[in-house]
Specification:
By secondary structure, the protein is an alpha/beta fold. It has helices at residues 2-16, 90-102, 161-173, 194-203, 213-222, 246-271, and strands at 22-28, 44-46, 64-70, 73-79, 107-116, 126-134, 178-185, 207-209, 225-235. It has a single domain (3-271), classed as Nucleoside phosphorylase domain (Rossmann fold, 3-Layer(aba) Sandwich), CATH 3.40.50.1580. It has a five-stranded mixed β-barrel with strand order 5-8-7-6-9. Helix 1 (2-16) crosses helix 2 and helix 2 (90-102) runs parallel beside helix 5. The structure holds hypoxanthine.
Length: 277
C-alpha cells in the first residue's frame, strides 16, 4: 500500500515538475494551513486521490498534497495530518511518513501548534523541538518491517542537529523569536488538567500537543532526517484562569501565519535540493 501511494506521488511530481528531485517534505499543522497560498500556482492533489490517505477531520487541516519548487528542488507539502484522537489508529497517523520513505524523501520538517508549559514562553513564540516525551501509542508496535527500518531504532538524537542549526540561522535572519525545548505528545482530544501540566513540567516538558511525536518516531525508524517547529498557541491548562478553546488555538495560528510561513519557506529553501545537510 505504501508503494502504491509513493508511486502515485512520484508520478504527480514528475508530471508537474519533470526531472526535479523531491527529497524534502513538510507537514503543515495548525497555524501553517495557509502556507500553500504563498505559491498560488502550486499544483496539488487531494488526499482522497492518494491510496490509503484519509482526509483530516481536524480544524484548519485541509487534506491536500502540494508540489512546490523551492531553491534547487521540490518540496512535498502535506497540508493537514491525521491525529491519533481522530480514532483511526496510530498506523494511519504515520502512514504518510512510510509513504515518504518509499517516495525517496530524505528531509522532513514537521510543524504544529501546542500549549506552552515553560513559564518563559509567550503566546506566538516559536519553539524548535530539541527532544520529546511520548505519551501516545508507539507507531512501531507491529510486525518488524525491515523495508522501513530496524526493529529497535536509536532515539538519542531524534531531531537532527544540522537541521536545527539551519532553522536557528534562518530564524535569526528573519528576526524571529525561536525558543528551544521538549515537546510532550499526548493523545487528546481533551486539553490537559492543571495537575497534568504540573506533572509534565516536572518531567521536563516545555510544550504540550497532540501530534508530531508518532511521525518523528516513524521518520527515525525510516532513516528520514527530521526536525519540528512548534507555535506556542496558548498557555497550557491552569497557567491562567481562562478555559482553553480551539478558537484560541486557531486565532494564534492565524496571527502567526505569515511569520510561520516565512520561516518555513526560508528553511525549506536553504535545505532544498540537498540529500545531505
Ligand atoms: N494542549 C494540547 N494540545 C494543544 C494545546 C494544549 O494546550 N494547544 C494546542 N494544541
Amino acid at each position: 500500500m505504501y508503494e502504491k501511494a509513493a508511486s502515485q506521488i512520484k508520478a504527480y511530481a514528475e508530471k508537474f515538475f519533470p526531472g526535479l528531485p523531491f527529497q524534502t517534505a513538510v507537514v503543515l499543522g495548525s497555524g501553517l494551513g495557509k502556507f500553500p497560498l504563498r505559491y498560488k500556482e502550486a499544483p496539488s492533489v487531494s488526499y482522497g486521490e492518494l491510496e490509503g490517505f484519509s482526509p483530516s477531520t481536524a480544524p484548519g487541516h485541509e487534506g491536500r498534497l502540494y508540489f512546490i519548487k523551492l531553491g534547487d528542488g521540490g518540496v512535498l507539502c502535506f497540508s493537514g495530518r491525521t491525529h491519533y484522537y481522530e480514532g483511526k489508529g496510530i498506523d494511519r497517523v504515520v502512514y504518510p511518513v512510510r509513504v515518504m520513505k518509499k517516495a525517496g524523501i530524505k528531509n522532513l520538517m514537521l510543524t504544529n501548534a501546542a500549549g506552552g508549559i515553560n513559564r518563559d514562553f509567550r503566546v506566538g513564540d516559536f519553539m524548535l523541538i530539541t527532544d520529546h516525551i511520548n505519551m501516545m501509542p508507539n507507531p512501531l508496535i507491529s510486525a518488524a518491517d525491515p523495508e522501513l527500518g530496524v526493529r529497535f531504532p536509536d532515539m538519542t538524537v531524534p531531531y537532527d542537529l544540522k537541521f536545527r542549526e539551519i532553522i536557528k540561522a534562518e530564524a535569526k535572519k528573519l528576526n524571529l523569536v525561536l525558543r528551544e525545548g521538549v515537546y510532550i505528545g499526548v493523545q487528546g482530544p481533551c486539553y490537559e488538567t492543571p495537575a497534568e501540566i504540573k506533572a509534565y513540567r516536572v518531567m521536563g516538558a516545555d510544550a504540550v500537543g497532540m501530534s508530531t511525536v508518532p511521525e518523528v518516531i516513524e521518520a527515525r525508524r525510516c532513516g528520514i532526517r527530521v526536525c519540528a517547529v512548534t507555535l506556542v498557541a496558548n498557555a497550557a491548562s491552569g497557567m491562567n484562569s481562562e478555559p482553553l478553546t480551539e478558537e484560541e488555538v486557531i486565532a494564534a495560528g492565524e496571527k502567526a501565519a505569515s511569520r510561520f510561513g516565512a520561516l518555513a519557506e526560508s528553511v525549506l529553501t536553504a535545505i532544498n535540493g540537498k540529500a545531505e545537510l
